[in-house]
Write a structure and sequence with these properties.
The protein has about 240 residues and is α/β, with parallel strands linked by helices. The protein has a single domain (about 1-215), classed as Rossmann fold, CATH 3.40.50. Helix content is about 30%, strand content about 15%. It has helices spanning about 10-15, 40-50, 70-90, 105, 125-145, 170-185, and strands at about 1-5, 20-25, 35, 55, 90-100, 145-150, 155, 170, 190-195. The protein has a seven-stranded parallel beta sheet with strand order 3-2-1-4-5-6-9, sandwiched between helices. A two-stranded parallel sheet has the order 7-8. Helix 2 packs across helix 3 (about 70-90) and helix 3 (about 70-90) runs parallel beside helix 5 (about 125-145).
Length: about 240
């Protein structure tokens, strides 16, 4: 059984997981969602009990959010989920990170960002994602948890503009990515979540992930967005989870 957090969010709505899934969010948007606050350690432990894996998508997804609005949903809750996984004996956590964790490299002029580069957050949101990745590394090293961090790009049916081409992640490839993360023979890893885009701005190397979609197939994209999204338009990484 897989526990899916942030189940009422936009990314979760595009995800199709095999087998039984326990879906949870702050509010029960439908009868299949277990409502509760993951900031409450007791609820967090109860909702993951008996799971084989956790796909953690819950959190504040607006990249323009200042740190006070990120501390609880993106830092404390992540720590709670990792704590709960260890306490409940859940062996694997797939954690939603973001390309915002490395988008500072793009600002610095790089045209290709590989997974071997160190983090370079573009904003407090990106820095919170780096913190989540490092927490996951700690839990993998110290407690033996399998933790796979996915730096998701812009998850929509089509890129929003030309500037989204490099960081786009199609819904189909999102599902291929998460499926690979749930089965990869890796104790810990941080991987970029993008489609097989042209141009290739972000490298990807999650074992078992073979993206099939390419942003270059969309020939009618606007040059840019008016008004711009709540993220740097060059990154193409405004996702909603």
């Amino acid at each position: 059984m897989i526990v899916l957090t942030g189940a009422a969010g936009g990314v979760a709505s595009l995800l199709r997981l095999d087998g039984p899934v326990r879906r949870t969010d702050l509010v029960a948007a439908d009868p299949d969602i277990v409502a509760g606050d993951l900031a409450d350690p007791q609820f967090c432990r109860s909702v993951v009990r008996g799971a084989d894996a956790i796909v953690h998508l819950a959190g504040q997804a607006d990249p323009s959010t200042p740190w006070p609005g990120l501390r609880t949903p993106n830092a404390d809750v992540t720590a709670n989920v990792l704590d709960a996984a260890v306490a409940a004996g859940v062996p694997r956590v797939v954690l939603a990170s973001s390309l915002h964790a490395v988008a500072g490299h793009v600002d610095a002029g790089l045209t290709f960002v590989g997974e071997d580069l160190p983090p370079h957050a573009c904003c407090p949101y990106g820095a919170a994602k780096v913190l989540a990745e490092q927490l996951a590394r700690c839990y993998a090293d110290v407690w033996g948890l399998t933790a796979i961090c996915l730096r998701l790009g812009g998850v929509l049916a089509r890129p929003m503009a030309q500037s989204w081409r490099g960081g786009w992640l199609s819904p189909g490839d999102l599902n291929r990515l998460v499926t690979a993360a749930l089965t990869a023979d890796v104790r810990f890893g941080i991987y970029h979540g993008v489609s097989a885009n042209t141009p290739q701005v972000y490298g990807y190397g999650l074992p078992g992930y073979a993206p099939e979609d390419d942003s270059s197939t969309f020939t009618d994209l606007p040059d840019d967005l008016t008004p711009p999204p709540a993220t740097h338009p060059r990154w193409g990484i405004a996702h909603r989870s």
